[in-house]
Amino acid sequence: MTAPFRRILMTHGRANTLLLLAGAIWGFGFVAQSSAMGSVGPFMFVTLRFFLAALTIMPLAVREAKAAPVKLTRADYYGFFFIGVLLFSGAALQQVGMQTTSVTNAGFLTGLYVVMVPFLGVILFWQWPHPVVWPCALTALAGIYLLSGGHLEGLTAGDLLIVACAIFWALQIIFINRIGMKSGRPIKLSLVQFMVCGLLGLVATLSTERTELFSILAAAPEILFAGVISSGIGFTLQVVGQRFTTAPQAAIMLSSEALFAALFGAILLGERMSLQGVAGCALIFFAMIAVELIPALRKRAGVRTQ
């Protein structure tokens, strides 16, 4: 286990607590991401965010490397790079999408990855989830329908980009568990994926955006929060926590960001939803909870009857 977290992550429950904390941090991060769009472009925001995240955890990565019993292989770095591409794809789609959607919508639609994780597990690796996944997926789709205003054309382009972003979040969670954890170097994985995101974001920025220094300074508080707290700390907590739980379990804990995004959006930005929108959010969150909670309860009941 990584030295800085050796005493913290001793149990599965504590790992889930770290994942829940990451969700809370990301939920608040939606507010910072939305506010920053008034000053800088989405790709510039992604670039600065992840370069700051890399600087934040670099001392921990150096310490981890010194304590590691074996060196990383080329295959490890390829895996880290691939996970970084997935993270960048999700972050970029999310940031662009937030230009034309609300913090609350972005929070709940991003949370769809909790349903997508088991679906993609079947498609990619033929790992069949518990049967409750299928009705939960339909429930989540019904929630999106209500959240869009009760008609599909109510979904904005930004909402659709956020849904696409959720697919890449789901893939990132899956592949962290499948290829990222074999190395036993979660901090180095975080550092590499942050650097990949920063570099890809820089290429996209130079190709599509023009940002002045005063614009960056105007968004400095949001960029600092997203880089140091939301990315540097939040994503690292995710990677460390996933070493002690499964991908679907991690997804349900991380999905708490949707609740925190709605809460912080209401408190800090004054966003309000209609009763229909609230019902849609409730259906999506119910799907997130049920897809993990019901199988766990049935498993526990089966053990007691034996």
From TrEMBL:
Subcellular compartments: Cell membrane
Top-rank taxon, per record: Bacteria
Membrane topology type: Multi-pass membrane protein
Cleavable signal peptide: none
Keyword annotations of the record: Cell membrane, Membrane, Transmembrane, Transmembrane helix
Spans traversing the lipid bilayer: 46-63, 75-94, 106-125, 132-148, 160-177, 189-207, 213-237, 249-269, 275-297
InterPro entries the UniProt entry points to: Diverse_Substrate_Transporter, EamA_dom, EmrE-like
One Gene Ontology cellular component annotation held by this UniProt entry: plasma membrane
Pfam family, one: EamA
Protein name per UniProt: Drug/metabolite transporter (DMT)-like permease
Native source organism of the sequence: Phyllobacterium trifolii
